[in-house]
Every structure is written in C-alpha cells, then in structure tokens.
Design brief:
Order of helices and strands: EEHHEHEEHEHEEHEHEHEHEHEHHHEEEE
Structural class: alpha/beta
Oligomer: single chain
Bound molecules: benzoic acid
Largest sheet: 9 strands, mixed
Strand content: 15-25%
Number of helices: 13
C-alpha cells in the first residue's frame, strides 16, 4: 500500500509518498493491458483535509486505510495505492479536483467526499467518465436520487435518512412547535426538510427555519432569535468545527435548560471532546452510536485506537465501510476491476457486518441501515433506542431498476 498527497488544484503542489514511483511507472498512455492488470489499484481520496470539515476528512481517510491495512494492503488480492486531494469543502473547485484525479492522476476508483455540494460536482464527473465513485459521507439526496448511476455508491447516508426519524422522536417527546437551524447549503436544506417531513407527519409544526451561510459560525443573532421565538425545542444540523462552536454558544446562552437542543447526530459526532460539558444530555439521531455492543464495533474501535490513537466515530466507520464495500467488489472479480458489471453487481448485493450494525444497499446504491436515537452521556454518544430500523432512503427520482 502506498500513498501520495495532492493538494487542491489551486495550489498545484504534489507531495509524493512511497507510491510516487509506482504512480510514475504507470504514466498515462503507457499502460498496456497486462501492466494495468498487475499494477496496483489506484484509489483517489478526495476529502477535506483543511477547513471546518478537516477532522471528518481525516477520520474517513484513517478508516479507509485501516481496512486496507487489515487486508495486508490488498483488496481482492490487488495491491492498493493512493493519491489524495484536499477538496477544502469548496464546491467551486470540485469539478477541477475530480477531473484531475480521474484524468491526470488516472485514479481507478474515487472515494469522496464530505460536503454535499462538492459531492454533486464529483457525481457529475463520475457519471460522465464512468469512474467508480464511493461517497463516504456527503448526504446529497440527488447522488442516489435523480443522479443515481450504476458506478456511484454511498457508504454513509442520504441527508433524508438520519433526520426523518427525528420528527417522530421529538413529537413523541412532547415538542409540538420546533425551530430549525442550519447552514444554508444542500445538506442543511435537505436535512431540515427531511426532519420537517417526519415532524409534520407526526403532527408537529415548524415555527421558523433559521440559516446562515456555510461555513460561518457567527451564531449569536440566530440564538437571540430562538430566545424570542420560544419554540418547544430546536432541531439543528451542523458538523465538524461549526458544530463544536454552535453547541458551546447555545449552552453559553443558557437556552439548553428551557429550549432543548436536538440534532442530526453530526452535531455531536467527533466533536464531544471539544464541546465538553456543553454537549451533555444532547439527543441526536444517526446511523451509529459509540457504545454499539456488536463484535464488529468493538473490534473496529480497538483497531482504530491502536492505529491512530483516536476514538473512532461515524466518519471513521464510513471510511472503513467504503473500503469494505470496495473489497466486496474486488473479491468478486479477483482484483480485475475491468470486469466492471460483475464488480458493481457484487457491490450492490453486499451485506456488510459494519460497526454501525447490518449494512446493505438499495437499488440506488444508498445504505439501508438502522437509525439510532443517542444521548450524550459520559462523553459518548450512547444509544437510547433504535429510532427506526432498516431505514431505506426513498431514492426519489432514481431510475435504476
Ligand atoms: C454534507 O455536506 O452532506 C454533510 C457534511 C457533514 C456532515 C454530514 C453531511
């Protein structure tokens, strides 16, 4: 297994790791079919390594590499080499960065990314070039909706999935009038819309949708507005550095005691150490909980800690499962990724024993998975209950049979 880091296209800087020589040995145009088959499979990692989602990108990267390491650096018997790009969560650079990975860098498979807007730029290039793409986080509904394609998979969630079940959870907890708050971009809009769908179906009423541009963190005016509105509760989507600051600001304003804060689980996943006591008691819904007591999760958390020194979270799990999904495909074709149809069929039918629990895929290649209600206790997102079992995204607009 080898590695190569590519900085964003704007910076035009390449840092070669051990894979540099291997990468140059299979320069574009020089690959005979025989060499291509024996050459390592080149995995392009397009993730945010800087910015508000930097930690999310790093944990996905670490999770993916952990799985490959556990398989001796090979998937389906084929050696793996890496090339990385920092997408900085900038949608405007998404097309160029993806084109560079599949064009100049000749990545065989691309794993990316975190931000829904960047992911949709990647999806377009993947569709045009028929590049195999596994999305290890971004929830953009369209990626497994109208833009679904045989060569596009997701190892994470659709924005609809963790939020729809929260509607009933909050209504059943007695909250009839709720305000939502999020960043104004695809993920925020889709997550709040899914929450609203579940909440209004249960009988609730959304009193106001509050937004600010991504990735701004000046929350004060919106928190003041929440205090004026006096809703029964608030449902939020923020993640990464923004989630850390929002939870702390909300607690510092003293609102938590009178207007309970809920959220999609990204609000408290991978953030608890930095949020400290401000996160205590927060309830969220997500396709993972830290204390899931299944053997796959116990083994994963130990291995992740041993490798990185960090406590695994949902992002690490999604990276790990992206590699597990690719492994299913590579095994089915004995490492020959040119047998594309067979590989895709195997991946679509995959049943993965994930740290999150059972993981399978719908016709649009989006995960079918449990959504857990969690509560922050003892510095962990502990499972309270399964909010909804085997949640399947509606895949609205996907034409795959
Ligand atoms: C998104 O942009 O889809 C996203 C980013 C962070 C966490 C969850 C979703």
């Amino acid at each position: 297994m080898s590695n190569r880091l590519m900085l964003p296209i704007s910076r035009r800087a390449l840092l070669s790791g051990a894979a540099g020589a291997a990468t140059l040995a299979v320069a574009p145009g020089l690959r005979s079919p025989a060499i291509a088959q024996n050459a390592p499979l080149k995995v392009g990692l397009m993730l945010p390594y800087t910015g508000t989602y930097a930690k999310l990108g790093k944990f996905i990267d670490d999770g993916f590499r952990l799985y490959v390491e556990q398989k001796g650096g090979k998937l389906g018997g084929r050696e793996i080499t890496f090339v990385q790009v920092d997408d900085e969560s900038k949608p405007e650079a998404g097309t160029d960065n993806m084109n560079r990975l599949v064009g100049r860098e000749k990545a065989d498979v691309v794993i990316g990314t975190v931000h829904s807007g960047v992911a949709m730029a990647m999806v377009k290039v993947a569709r045009d070039t028929k590049t195999l793409l596994i999305i290890p986080n971004a929830g953009a509904n369209d990626a497994t909706g109208p833009a679904c394609a045989p060569n596009i998979f997701r190892s994470s969630f659709s924005n609809w999935q963790p939020n729809y079940p929260m509607g009933k959870v909050m209504f059943d907890a007695g909250h009839k009038n709720v305000a939502t708050i999020t960043w104004k971009y695809a993920a925020g809009a889709e997550q709040m819309s899914a929450f609203k769908e579940g909440f209004t179906k249960a009988g609730g009423n959304v009193v106001e949708d509050l937004t600010l541009p991504f990735p701004e963190v000046e929350f004060q005016a919106l928190i003041t507005r929440i205090a004026q509105l006096k809703p029964d509760a608030v449902h939020a989507f923020f993640a990464g550095g923004g989630a850390v600051k929002f939870v702390k600001d909300y607690a510092a304003a003293g609102l938590g005691k009178t207007i309970p804060l809920y959220g999609a689980g990204f609000l408290t996943d991978g953030t608890l150490e930095a949020q400290g006591a401000a996160a205590n008691g927060l309830k969220t819904t997500l396709h993972y909980a830290d204390n899931l007591d299944n053997p796959a999760n116990v083994a994963f958390l130990k291995a992740f800690k041993d490798k990185t020194g960090n406590v695994g979270d949902i992002y690490a799990v999604q990276g790990y499962d992206a590699a597990a999904l690719l492994d299913v495909g590579m095994k089915a074709v004995g490492g020959d990724d040119k047998q594309r149809d067979k590989m895709i069929a195997a991946m679509g039918a995959a049943k993965i024993d994930s740290p999150r629990g059972p993981l399978s895929f719908n016709k649009a290649h989006n995960p079918i998975q449990n959504i857990y209600l969690r509560e922050v206790r003892n510095g962990r997102n502990e499972m309270v209950s399964i909010a909804q079992k085997d949640v399947d995204d509606p895949a609205r607009g996907c034409k795959l049979a």
